[in-house]
Specification:
single chain, mainly alpha, two-stranded antiparallel ribbon, 13 helices, transmembrane
Length: 391
Amino acid sequence: MLDPIISFFTRLFYWIGRGIGYLVGLILWPFLWLGRWYGTRGLILKAVLGALLVLVVGLYGYFFWTTQRWTNFDPLYAQAYGVNAANADAGQPVGQAVVPETGATAPAAADAATAGEGAARTCLSSQIVRVTADLTDFNVNQNPWVSSMVLYKLGFFGLDWDRTPFFDNKAAFQRGINQAARRTSTELVEVLGRVRATSSIDNDLQKARGDLQFDEETWYLGATPPWLRTPTPTYYRSAITSLRAFNDRLQKCEAVFDARADNLARFIDRVSNDLGSTAAILSERSENYDGGWFDTRADDRFWFAYGQLYGYYGVLTAAHADFRDVIAQRGLTQLWTRLEEQLARALRVQPAIIANGAEDSILMPSHLATINAYVLRVNAVLEETRSVLER
């Protein structure tokens, strides 16, 4: 009685095996043909082709290692930029200044004419500037910048890596961080690094903004004239230098950081708008492309948003330090603490494989909906904070 059933499954597995073997043979055929062709070539040609093969294999090995290893990734990194013991906002004089000629001390806030011609003043540097420089350093010095690597630009047999489920997570994460750094650098130039937008623009901040706005995908060679290019990481490294130069000058009281409530309100508004744009992209993808684990764009959407939250976690924690007095005087300490907690919770979401399933799916989770929920929660706290500041 069981013989027909056994015979059916035997034939079924036989043809499945034949099909798999045929498919494997089809995939391996070009490589086997190349191997036979290579074996008939001369010694010099073999050496040249062999060297090229070693180079390609080495490049792809390095590319694989780079995209999978995230050096110094730390969701709790922002704690290093929190409120410190200095009882002042960024840019304000702190401690006491020493008059070199006499060795006497004078209040750091005193005018140089009062303290003496040689009075050395010290001001509090900006944690926002510091974290923006450190995030960019994390992107291009502590880790290679993936988006401008030649193999990332070539794609997967010509297909953009962002449209595949492979090797694009780190690139999207870095671009998310860079988006936060770009937005912050713009606000530093236009609002925070000048007095009531009437003073001249700070040259270091202006240069940093210009460098961070440079496109994210330039390699040493381009497809159009001029053929030789300065790669993207070089510009971002220049931005790091400019940001740290500004902070050095600020610490010497030679630059301006305008830590006023209206400036903080505007800064929060710009960050909120930036996150709102990301929330709209996540919502659109989640609602219209619920392909579960087979949505090849879900991973780069997720990791871009994650990188943006990662960047803003540090920036907004630093803003708590830079606007310490404003936040305390407006009674925003508890609200700001909640903001930082929401950002920290969002960064705990680190799925190994990103799925974009229906929100009520049993089998496939909706990671885009999950990260979007955190983006919207952070945005809600930002809006509430801004409304308090504008009263």
